[in-house]
Each structure stands twice: as structure tokens, then as C-alpha cells.
Amino acid sequence: MPDTSAGSKRRFAVRVPAGGAVVAGALVAIVLGWFVLFQIIEQEELQDIESAKRANANLVRAFNEHVLHTLNVVDLESATLAHAVERDGPANVDLRAYRRRIAAALPYVLHVAAIDAEGNVASSSLAEPPARPYAGDQEYFRALQAGGENSLAVGSPALDYSGKRSIPLARRLDAPGGAFGGVLVFSIDPDYFSRLFASASLGSHGAVTLFRDDGIVIARRAGQTRMIGMSIGQTSSFEIMRRQAKGAFVANWAIDGLSRVVAFERLRGYPLTIDVATSVDDVLANVREKRPVNYLFAATATAFLLLASFLIAFLFRRREQAARELEGARERAELLLRRNQRSLVELTRSEARFRAFTDLSSDWYCELDDQFRFKTVSANTARTVGTDVGSIIGLHPWEASDWQLSDEELAAHKAKLQAHLPFRDFELWRVTRDGRRMCTTTSGHPMFDAEGKFLGYRVVGHDITERKHAEQAMRESEERFRSLLTAASDGVLIHRNGRLEYVNYALVRMLGYDRADEIIGRQVYDLMHPGEREALRERTTWVESTRRATPLTETVMLRRDGSSLEVETTAASFRQNDAIWIISIVRDITQRKRIETELKRLNAELERRVAQRTAELEQANRELEAFSYSVSHDLRGPLRAITGFGAILMNEGREKLDPDMLGYLQRTQAAAERMGMLIDDLLALSRISRHEMNRQPIDLSGLASRVVDSLIQAHPEREVRVSVAPGMKVLGDPGLIRILLENLIGNAWKFTSHTAAATIDVGATGNDGRTSYYVRDNGAGFDMRYADKLFGAFQRLHSQSEFEGTGIGLSIVQRIVDRHGGRVWAEGKIHEGATFHFTMD
Known about the structure:
Helix content is 46%, strand content 23%. By secondary structure, the chain is an alpha+beta fold. The chain is elongated.
């Protein structure tokens, strides 16, 4: 009997690698199948993200145009108002009346304020005085004060001087001569933009943000306003948007860590950017909703392939006598495997065709049967009808939601369906089952089988509600703008390439015409005086090339009757329909010119009178100087005689005089010396009034220390603690300031001579933003009831026997402080010391 075991083993040894190859092939097929499935899912996600980018970009463009239009209106209005404020002064403009006048046309303007050059709110449209009357510390004020362009500056949202959070839109005010004259501020309600941004349906995690180029958030959609005023300048998303004017990308949001699809665009002419962001989870919700089904199918195929491969491998290991059956089973398994692979490929192709169909719309799709009832709908169709998808299967489209069509329009649409005709871009307003009103546009194509039998319609739809709302808002904004121009008291004209396209009634009346159509269509240069036409062409070219507003310019126009009209104009440009338009504001200045002529005449008369009074004052000063010389010369002669003869009597006749006579002689000598001191002080007071000022920076601390040193050297026996604050600086005449300190510190030295522990302090203190300097002592002091007599000539509050002096020193101090444009005053108590304060301009 032949041994078949070895042969069986050899056949089994040969079959085993074949079974392993089958298992390996099944594993490869499984890996390839999963790879293809993941590629399909990834491609679907990429396509949905690209669709979201396009949708967000459309929203960004719509919001951009609306915000840009709003800013342009405020820019134009602020430029017009700024001219009036510059002309009349920040404190002389009735902003309350102005705010009431523009309230209907510009409801988003909370209030308007004019701030003078020192930062104080000079006038405001608020009914009550502002809570913060000082605005000099505001960001926009400092930026414009430093020399910003004469354009609209966008400030950081904050609690402004009225105590309410707002977006400040500021424009620089120029004083006569071009110097900085203050700031005109339009405070914009950030909730206006928040409500606008909230009109877009972006899902639970969507966001719309308006921010400056430095990252400061200006406005966000309603419900997300806590970020207003904060900075996103450190985020990676901001770095991407900072480098481009517009674009779209996907990034993780630094605020909540969610991944979002972001589209952004920078506003033309302003340092602002708008971005619209939708959550990637919301964008990919449809794809991820189908993912479990795909995974289930792939898992089933994987299990089947694994089971088949292991079964084939097991059959290969059967005994040799079952070889034919094993070969047949292997062939059947391989055939089944090839069929499954072909089915997987066909399924992949079918999914690709289905995805290509859904790419026709970024929102939703459906199929209708031959009776025009819903047969198949996409998951996101629920948002369109306002209920779950299952509840509308079997209903007609006009039954699933309330179509806002007339009977004739609905009948016409049904007739097109009955005729099995395709339709495209069918716009429809509808009320969904959950009460929302939305507008959609749909396109449909009839389906037929191979025999030509009508099967129904394949329909794709797109939600255009936001676009319709944006268009309506744009129309309303244009109507408000037109009403504003019509109601303006100044003339307004708009032209393109020199051809007049619009004039308001104020300009028609100003030029003596009856109707606007008598002017519209003509060249703008025909309205100008011949000598002004070339200058107007130059200004127009400059505005078109720089896109900046012209400064106020005086020019001459022609009335209908040919007479000249002096006007003041300014012009700016805006782009519309790829063309540059010029808008000009015209103001009749005929009355102002007459007033200016009269003012010039009055100024000339005033200058003549000032010159006359100056000559009289100079003559009086010369007479005073002659009088001072006469006093010095004529009085000193007799005094020298009295002093000289008195000295001779004291030296040579002392033994011959009795004590009473000697006392009289000593009192005569003392009176003569006191008279000499009075004459010296009067001359010093007179010289101070005539002294020519030479202002320069002075180290007040060093000068005071030198005065103290001279007193210490003159009176070494005194023990006085003197403190001089370091770093005190002042702008003044060095000679006069030294005389001032010598008098004040000398008085403190004198009036502490009877104090045991005498102290003198020289220092400075700040009050209301102005520095005042003081000299304080703990000496004799004075009664505050007589403080008004301190600075009068020859006024003394102490007797000559207590403290010597002439009563002129403090008069000299007051004269010096007056010449420096400052103020001097004193505080004190009897036996507790005195403090003398002074300021310098």
C-alpha cells in the first residue's frame, strides 16, 4: 500500500503559502478600502470647508460695504461740521441742535462733542454736562494732537466722557494758522454693528468681529460683545489677517480653542478689518452625520473579507482528498472577493457622483417624485423648513412651509412643473414651521428613465436671506443719505468726470435756479467763474489721485444771472461701480466776507488807538524815570547834610550835650538813615517796573541755596534750619527772580530772629496741573485779617522796634510776580509762622 502521508504533507506544505496569500490579499484590500473611504471623507470635508469659506467671504463683503458706507457718512458729516467748529470755535457750536437734526438719518451716532486744544470738552450734544469734562487723556486726542492727518480717526471703544461705552470717530480741528485746535468726536453706538452682525446665521459658535489694525476689537455680533475694547493682536489668526487685505483660512480660536473657518477683508480707506468665522464642527456636521453609516458599511465589508479569507485558508488546510473542492472553493472565494472589490469601487464612484451633485449648492438638496412630493431630502433641509426631515417626506414643497407667493405666481410655478421644464434661480420668501421668515433661491431639473418616463425633479437650494437683508439695509441707508443731502442747508453737488449727476435744493436756490434738472447734466466747470475753473480742475485731479478731502477753499461761482457768488468749498471722493465720484460741499460766504471787511476796518482802528496809547505810556514812563532821578538826587542831598552834621555833633560835641539832646540827635540820625532806605526801596520798585525782561530757564533750587548762603555768612551767629527742595525749575528773568527770593527768604530770616528753633522751608507743590512755589517759616506770623495789606507799599503789620524794615519788600515781590504773569499770596498765624506762595506763567 503506497504511503500517501508524505505526499499529503507536501501538498499541504504547498497549499499553506497560498492560504497566507489570500489572507494577505484580504488585508491589503481592507487597508485600501479604508484608505479610499478616509480619502472620500477627507475630500468631502475639504469641499465643505471651501464652501464655508466662500459663504463667509460673501458675508464679509456685505458687512464691509455696510460698515464702509456708515463710516463714509460719518466722515462726510464730521468734515462738514468740523469746518463750522473751526470757524466759530469749539465752545460756540450748538451740538444739541445738530444732534437732533441728524438723529433720524444717523441713529447710530450717540452724541457729538467738540474738544478744545487743552483737552476740555468745550461743547457736547448731551442734555446734561458730561461726566468726564476732560478728554485730553483719550487715545484719539493724543494721536490727533501729535499731528495726525485731517481724516477720520477710529478710537478704541471705551467709557467716554459721557460715561457710556462707544466707538469714538474723531477728526482734528485746526486753529487759525494751521495749529492744533482740538478734536471733533462722533461717538458711535457699538450695538449698532452688533445688531447688524447678528443678522447673519452662523451657527451656535459663529462670530463676526470688527477690529483695528493694532488688534483692538471695535464691535462684535450681539451676545459676544464682552471682547469689545480688548486686543487680539497676540493671536496667530490676527497675524494671518494682518499680512493680507482679504482672504480665508482655518485656524484654532485662541478664545475657546474651537477650530473655525475664517474669512476676512480690510475696509478700504480705514485701519479696520472685518472677519466672519463659523465653527468647523458646524460646517462638517453633514459629513460627520453620514460618517457612522460609512464606517458601518466598511466594517461589514472588512468582517466579510476577513471571514472569507480565513475560511479559504482553513479550506487549504483540509486533507488532500478534498483538493478539488478546496480549489473550487478558493476560486469561488477569489471571484467573490473580486466582485466585492468591484462593488467597493462602484460605491466609491457613486459617492463621487453624488458629491458632485451636492456641490451644485452650498446649502441643501432634495428629490421630488412624479407627483412633486418630497422623496429624498438632505439633512440640512431641516433648517429651510423649520422641522425635522422625516416629517416632510410625502409633502409638496409648498405644503412643507408657507410660501409668500401670490396665487398667480404659485400657479405659474406649478404650470412649469407640470410641463416638466427645468427652472433656475427661483427666488422665494417663505415662513418656516418654526416661525422664521427666510428667502431661498432654488434650481431644479426633471428626471426621466431610459424609456423617457418622468420620474420627478432633482432640486438644489441656497439660503439668501442674509443677502436680501443686506440689500434692503443698503437701500435704506442710501435713502437716508439722500434725505440728509436734500435737507442740508449747505449746497451739495456730485459729479463724475466733470459731469454733474446730483445737486441738492440748497445749491439750486444758492445759484438762482428753479429746478435741479436745470443744472444736472452740465459740466461742473460751467458753474465756476472763468478765473477759477483751472484751479477746480487741479483740485479735482488731486482728490481723485490721493482719495483725500480738500481743505476749505474760497472760490467764486456764477449765478444764473451771471453775477459772482463768493463761496467756501471742500471736496472728497468715493468709488462706486468701478468709477470715482466727487462730492463737494458749497457754502455761501457773502455775509461773512462783509463781516470780515468790517472787522479789518475795526482792527485797523484798534491798532491806531493802541499805538497812540503806547506812545502816551512811553511818555509817562519817561516822566516817571525823570521823577525817580529827581527824588534820588534832590532828597539825598539834604539827607547827606543831616547825616554828616549829625555825625560831627556826635563825634565832637558829645561832651557838651546833655543826655536828652544826645538822644534827640541819635533819633535824628536813625530817621535820616531810615529815609535813605525808603528812597533806595522806592527806586528799586521803580526800576523793577522798567526792567527789560529776559526770560530763560532758572535753577530755582540753586538760586535759593545761594541766597541762604549769603544770609548765613552775613549772620553767622544765627542758628536756623533751612530746607531747600531740590530740582525746582522755573522760566523767568534771573535778576528779578533773585530779588524775589532775597525778599521772601530775607523776610523769613528776619521774622524768625526771635524764635528759638527757627526753621525755613523753600519748596514747590502741584495744584490743578500748575506748580506753585513757597517759602515757609515758623517765626512771628501775622493775623490773616490783615493779609490784604501785606503787599501794599509802606504797609507793615509789625512795629519798627520789633522788626526793622520799610514795608516795600513785599510790594517788590508782587511787582516781580505780576511781570511774570503769576500770582502771590500769603497764609499765617500769629506766633506760628507764615507761608508765602507764588506761581509763574
